[in-house]
Amino acid sequence: MNVFGVDIGGSGIKGAPVDLERGDLAEARHKVLTPQPATPDGVAGCVAEVVGHFGWSGPVGVTFPGVVTGSTIRTAANVDKGWIGVDAAALLREQLGDGVSVTVLNDADAAGIAEMTFGAGRGRKGTVIVLTLGTGIGSAVFTDGQLVPNTELGHLELDGHDAEKRASTKVKEDKDLSWEEWAHRVQKYLAHVEMLFSPELFIVGGGVSRKAEKFLPLIKGVRAEIVPAQLQNNAGIVGAAMAAASR
Q1: Which of 108, 112, 125, 208 is the 20 to 30 Å CA partner of 133?
Q2: CB atoms within 10 A of CB 126
Q3: How far apart are CA 194 and CA 31, in angstroms?
């Protein structure tokens, strides 16, 4: 069975039909740039463009970079603050058509669900933390396979700042940090999270997971196992489709 997944990010919005038996994209994904400012109407229009690219008319799962309770947006760190308090599913149904069912969830939670089912976390027990490094830092925490939603560990304080302002991929790019310099920041962040949660496993995702060999071997002193996400930057799309199917 195929279900459509859309992943809203701070820099890009991408989506594709997902084959839920394989846990992989059924077609090559389509991506558009996130509008700036990333207002609700602007982003909703882009989601409709991505879905429309495939002529899709079935269920759609959509990730959002912030806390989502029900389908209401509670925080918006890397998109316009106008999202706060918006019923995202209702807004997207207006754009996609009332006949289309829409499920909205936190972006890192979606990526984590996909990784725990089809990727690096499959079959793993204990505490597993999935971290998505990109415009910000998203987190998904699992205990014996059960998700603790909306953890937002990218906003833990690190060196007097939000952790994602110190260790995200965007910071690496903006400050032109070497892999060694950036890995040191990621190491400090992982050590802080480990002190709080004592996970057995960290799964590091986001687009930078494609280059895991450049920075993961440089991270020292963290007791938990650290592995790259297997679904890499498609995890959010897959997890969004899984959430839509489960509804």
Answers
A1: 125
A2: 13
A3: 34
Spell out the per-residue pLDDT of the chain, length 247, in tens: 899 999 999 899 999 999 999 999 999 999 999 999 999 999 999 999 999 999 999 999 999 999 999 999 999 988 999 999 999 999 999 999 878 999 999 999 999 999 999 999 999 999 999 999 999 999 999 999 999 999 999 999 999 999 999 999 999 999 999 999 999 999 999 999 999 999 999 999 999 999 999 999 999 999 999 999 999 989 999 999 999 999 8
Residue whose tokens read 């304080």: 157
CA-based nearest residue to 137, from 105, 113, 112, 170:
170
> Which amino acid, one-letter code, is at 190?
L
DSSP string covering 141-179, please?
A: EEETTEEE----GGGSEETTEETHHHHSHHHHHHTT--H
* Other C-beta atoms lying within 10 Å of the C-beta of residue 215: 22
pTM here is: 0.95
CA distance 138 to 182: 17
